[in-house]
Structures are given as structure tokens and as C-alpha cells.
Amino acid sequence: MAPTTKEGQRAELHRTIWRIANDLRGSVDGWDFKSYVIGMLFYRFISENAYNIAVSSYVEQDDTREIVAITALNVEIARIVAHQSELHTAINAIVVDLEGVES
User: Fold this and answer.
1) 8 to 1, 3, 17, 30: CA distances (angstroms)
2) For residue 83, which of 96, 75, 10 has the smallest C-alpha distance?
3) How far apart, in Å, do the first and last CA atoms of the chain sit?
4) Which residue, 34, 11, 6, is CA-closest to 22?
């Protein structure tokens, strides 16, 4: 008779999995069997992910780069250069005033 509670079903599943694992393992030492199973799981993981990586390298990705308005960018650069020129002129005037006072 099958268990009716969730815990009972889980325990039955646990026992069944262990029974199958013990039957599959046979006379092989538990440590060796564990190493073998972990190795197989690792190779399966690698093969599945290698396939995904291989497929994704052939699939064209969406272009997620930011769209830049070159005209607006050039206007902003011109504004910054003009402001920098104004600052340079002002700094030169301050240096001339300071050098004139000190000399």
C-alpha cells in the first residue's frame, strides 16, 4: 500500500532511490561508486553547458549598446571646449595679476 502523506511518499521515494542505487552499485565500493556517479554528473553538466555555449556563439545577440546622437554629442563637446577656453583665459588673467602684484 502506498503512503498517503507527503512525508510518507518522500520516505518511500528515498527508500526506492537507495534500493536502486544499491542494486546498480552491486559489489563496487561506495566511495568508488560515488566518484563514478559524480564524474558522470560532471561530464553531463559540461556537455550540456558546452552545447549551450556553442549554440550561443552562433546565435546573433541583440544589440544592447546605447544609441548616441552624434550631433548632440558634438554640440556638447563644443560647449565644453569653449568653457575650457574661457576658464583658461580667466586663469591666465589671474596669474598675470598675481605676478604683477608680486613683482
Assistant:
1) 11, 5, 14, 27
2) 75
3) 108
4) 34
CA distances from 6 to 2, 3, 56, 101 (A): 11, 8, 41, 92
In sign, the C-alpha dihedral spanning 87, 90, 95, 98 is negative
Query: Any idea which residue has 596669474 for its cell?
Result: 95
pLDDT tens-place values along the chain, 103 residues long: 566 788 888 899 898 888 887 777 777 777 777 787 788 888 888 777 776 666 666 667 777 888 888 898 889 988 988 888 888 888 888 888 888 755 4
- Single pTM value for the model: 0.33
Residue 52: count of CB within 10 angstroms of its CB: 10
